[in-house]
Each structure stands twice: as structure tokens, then as C-alpha cells.
Design brief:
This protein has 15 helices and 2 strands. It is mainly α and 424 residues long. The protein starts with a helix and ends with a helix.
Length: 424
């Protein structure tokens, strides 16, 4: 009887919308990656583009997805519980000021990377970095209101809007990349982001008679943002470390990263989004038990499949066009190395969710301590890799294996903290 009630609950319906839309988005994402592998394979110009994209992806973890969800969802879930309508006009004004700074920081950082590290393909990379920075800024704007949409419980509209984004980006990828090389990749992504903003974000920011809500920089805590996205930070830094060697190894890491990221983003993150909202409202750990069980089952299946069929999977998916058999062997090798750490990071991401539901006011002090400790360890590992001249592929996996275990430990400590403070 309890199982029947659980499966008929709103929780299951919310997950169904997110999971179904993510099946579509991940399918379209696969199409995108097939196109990119077909057109670019492991070419140096594409590897150079991936270095820039990794940097903007790193910045996006402060401005997109979990970064905003951990800060926005708990607060706005409570506001929507007490008010049926909120006026988001002031938040619209605030976000438009912030995106200018985001663009400048991103663009200047990428220019330095091109001039000091990559030192080739200048014109195409400078133009690509401009569009990547515009995309980063637009993603912050969209993600802010998408997080509010999730806090309102409108997972259906959220699912449709994010599906439109990837659909438009995929439709334009092939023709634009054929005409404009890697610049076409960035323009196709920008078209997807702008379509989401126009059709789904623009209508909800119009002034209305609801409760007027304000947002400022004080509502965002750097430590909370870092912890909320610590798993992806770890993966992106590992990818960036490999990119520093100037070879095409980052392309192989990226293809394996994409295959595993399908599991992390399509299933685990969606479970976390829903349960973060439920825990914020109901203060119960029951959803965490369900999500832990689901994650455990997925992890066991994932590890078995990758350990047994990694080359067959990569070869079947990517081996066509510019992507050759040697590329498949290298990508399968990276996929096997990356999977154990990825599984650990899935659990650490999950165990952090109750902690974030306490709200910034209750967790900012302990979050600062967690973040300071992680940064010290992170800097120590990276310094060790470069000072000891460790081969960068080996160093990258040393980094990700150590950081994933440390994050799991800290996430368990955060869960204990939640249990002790949830009713205070």
C-alpha cells in the first residue's frame, strides 16, 4: 500500500516530467556529440576549443544549475508555499546588471588563456570565446528564473523550456559548424539559449500584482555555490589539467565525460532538485533514502557496463567521420578510469542535498569551513602535480580520485550536521 501511494504521489509525477524530458535532452545531446565527433574527432583546433569551453563551464558552475538551485530553491519554495504569485521584476533588473560582469570576466580570462597557453588558432578562438561568454551570461539569466520555476513546483514548464534549448541548438549545429568550424558550435548553442529566454523566461518576469521580491548579492553564498557544484568543479578542473599539455588528450577525456554526465545530469541531479524542494518544505529524510537506493542501483549497473563494454560502447557511438578507431580506444581508456570517481561524486552530490535545504543563514559558517578546507587540499594537489612534473593525464586522475573521496567524506559530515540542526 505504501509503495502504491509513493508511486502515485506528486513526487513521482515531478520526477517523471524531469526524467522524460531528460531522455529527450540526452538523446539530442548524443546527436550533438555524434555530430561533433564526426566533424572534429580529436583535432587540435577542437581540443583548443575544449580548453576554452572547460574554463567557461567552470565559471558556469558559479552561475548556472546547482549553483543557483542551492541558493534559490529553498528560499523561493517557502515563498511560494505562502504566496500564490510573486512579482519578479526586481530580480530581472538585478540579473541584467550581473550578466555584464560575468561576460567581462569570462571573455578576458579566455583571451589570456589563448595568448599564454594555447598560442594558436587565434582568430577562430577569440571569436569563439566572445560567443562562449555571451552564452555564459545568458545562461545565468535563464538559470536564475528556471530555479524559481522549480521552486514554484512547475517542473512541467521547466522540462519543456530546457528541452527547447537543446532542440534548437542541435538543429543548427551541423549546418553552422560546416560553414563556420568551431564558431558554429558556439552560435548554435547561443540560439538555443536565446529561444529559451524568449519563450519561457520573458513571460514570467513581466510585472504583476504578486508579492514583490528582491534579490541581491547577499542572497548568494560563495561557499554554498562551491559545495553545491563541487562534483562538477572537480571534473572540470581535472579536464582543464589535461588541457594544459597542449595535446588532444582533453578530447578523449571530454567524450568520456559526456557519456558519464548523462547519468549524473539526467537522473541524479533531477532527483536532487526534487528532493531539495521536498526536504525544504517537509523536513524529512525519507526522500533521501529513496534517492540513495536509486543511485546505488544505477551505480552498480553503470560500473558493470563500463567495465565490460567500454570500447564497444564508444566505438558504436562515436566511430565515424573524423573520429577513428584509435580515438575510440583512447576514449574507452578514459571512460574506465573516470567511472569509479564519477560514482563516488554521484553519492557526494546526493548527500549534500539535506544540508542545503537548511538555508544559507544556518549553513554559511560551516560552509565556509568546508570550502576553505577543500580549497587548501585542491591547491595542494594541483601544486604537487605541477611541481613534481607528473604526466598530466596521470595527474588529472590523481586529482579526481583524491577529491572525489574527500567530497564524499565532507558530504557525510554535512548530513550529520543537517540531522543535528534541522529543527533548530
Amino acid at each position: 500500500m505504501e509503495i502504491t501511494k509513493s508511486f502515485s504521489s506528486q513526487l513521482f509525477k515531478d520526477f517523471s516530467f524531469l526524467f522524460s524530458s531528460n531522455i529527450l535532452k540526452k538523446f539530442l545531446g548524443f546527436i550533438r556529440e555524434l555530430i561533433l565527433a564526426f566533424l572534429f574527432g580529436s583535432s587540435l583546433v577542437y581540443a583548443s576549443y575544449l580548453v576554452l569551453k572547460t574554463l567557461t563551464d567552470f565559471f558556469s558552475q558559479f552561475t548556472f544549475g546547482n549553483a543557483l538551485q542551492a541558493n534559490i530553491v529553498p528560499r523561493f519554495s517557502k515563498l511560494y508555499k505562502e504566496n500564490t504569485l510573486l512579482n519578479l521584476n526586481n530580480i530581472d533588473k538585478f540579473s541584467k546588471k550581473i550578466i555584464v560582469y560575468i561576460f567581462l570576466i569570462s571573455f578576458l580570462s579566455q583571451c589570456l588563456l589563448i595568448l599564454l597557453l594555447i598560442k594558436k588558432f587565434y582568430l577562430v578562438l577569440f571569436i569563439s570565446s566572445f560567443f562562449l561568454s555571451v552564452i555564459l551570461s545568458a545562461n545565468f539569466y535563464n538559470s536564475l528564473f528556471l530555479s524559481i520555476m522549480q521552486a514554484r513546483g512547475d517542473f512541467k514548464k521547466f522540462s519543456f523550456s530546457t528541452s527547447l534549448n537543446i532542440l534548437v541548438a542541435t538543429l543548427f549545429l551541423y549546418p553552422l559548424s560546416l560553414m563556420l568550424n568551431i564558431i558554429g558550435i558556439t552560435i548554435s548553442r547561443l540560439l538555443g539559449v536565446l529561444s529559451l529566454s524568449y519563450f519561457y523566461i520573458k513571460p514570467i518576469v513581466l510585472p504583476n500584482s504578486g508579492l514583490e521580491v528582491n534579490l541581491s548579492s547577499k542572497d548568494f553564498n560563495f561557499s554554498v555555490i562551491f559545495l553545491a557544484n563541487s562534483s562538477l568543479f572537480t571534473l572540470l578542473l581535472a579536464r582543464l589539467i589535461i588541457g594544459f599539455d597542449g595535446s588532444n588528450q582533453i578530447a578523449f577525456f571530454n567524450y568520456s565525460f559526456i557519456l558519464l554526465n548523462i547519468i549524473l545530469t539526467s537522473v541524479i541531479f533531477n532527483i536532487n532538485i526534487i528532493f531539495l524542494r521536498k526536504i525544504s518544505i517537509n523536513k524529512s529524510l525519507v526522500p533521501l533514502l529513496y534517492s540513495t537506493l536509486i543511485t546505488l542501483i544505477i551505480s552498480c549497473i553503470l560500473y558493470f557496463i563500463v567495465s565490460t563494454y567500454s570500447f564497444e560502447i564508444v566505438n558504436f557511438i562515436f566511430n565515424r567521420g573524423a573520429f577513428n578507431n584509435e580515438d575510440a580506444i583512447s576514449t574507452a581508456f578514459f571512460l574506465r578510469l573516470l567511472t569509479p570517481a564519477y560514482i563516488v561524486l554521484m553519492f557526494s552530490t546526493l548527500f549534500f542535498q539535506p544540508f542545503f535545504s537548511l538555508g544559507i543563514n544556518k549553513i554559511y559558517k560551516i560552509s565556509n569551513r568546508f570550502t576553505l578546507f577543500l580549497f587548501l587540499v585542491l591547491i595542494s594537489i594541483i601544486s604537487y602535480i605541477f611541481l613534481k612534473n607528473i604526466e598530466l593525464v596521470e595527474g588529472s586522475f590523481l586529482f579526481i580520485n583524491l577529491m572525489s573521496k574527500l567530497l564524499l567524506l565532507i558530504s557525510l559530515v554535512s548530513l550529520i550536521y543537517y540531522i543535528r540542526h534541522e529543527n533548530k
